[in-house]
From TrEMBL:
<dbReference type="Pfam" id="PF05610">
    <property type="entry name" value="DUF779"/>
</dbReference>
<protein>
    <submittedName>
        <fullName>DUF779 domain-containing protein</fullName>
    </submittedName>
</protein>
<dbReference type="InterPro" id="IPR008497">
    <property type="entry name" value="DUF779"/>
</dbReference>
């Protein structure tokens, strides 16, 4: 099966740092303006999922959720979580106090990959 989401080594290192400090984590990407355009990292359970939000997979044992409308737009794309040394538009994500911002690099799946994609989980 083909994963819909993975991360760079730099993102893995930051996730481990954040897990050591905060415990279990989750990611959420909305797709709206400002901080909604970048993935947000929260302590697991501290972001309330909305009806039909979609979990596209896990990164380092952390669920990666996206808004249902964003999923419809990007369901044929692979998400690669990365990190930049800057403070992004939002201030709610756990990496911000470290002067970092998570970002996603996208690429479109090939038809062969689409035929082998992992199932998603939908919040009902």
């Amino acid at each position: 099966m083909i994963s819909r989401v993975d991360c760079t080594d730099k993102a893995k290192e930051l996730i481990e740092t954040l897990k050591t400090k905060h415990g279990d984590l989750m990611f959420y990407q909305a797709g709206g303006c400002c901080e909604g355009t970048q993935p947000q990292c929260f302590k697991k359970g501290e972001y309330y999922l909305r009806y039909k939000d979609v979990c596209i997979g896990t990164i380092e044992d952390c669920e990666f959720w996206v808004d249902k409308d964003l999923f419809e737009y990007w369901k044929h794309a692979h998400f690669e979580l990365d990190v930049i040394d800057a403070i992004g538009a939002g201030g709610f994500s756990l990496e911000v106090p470290l002067g970092k911002t998570f970002k996603v690099n996208y690429r479109v799946f090939s038809q062969e990959e689409i035929d082998q994609l992992e199932e998603v989980k939908i919040n009902l």
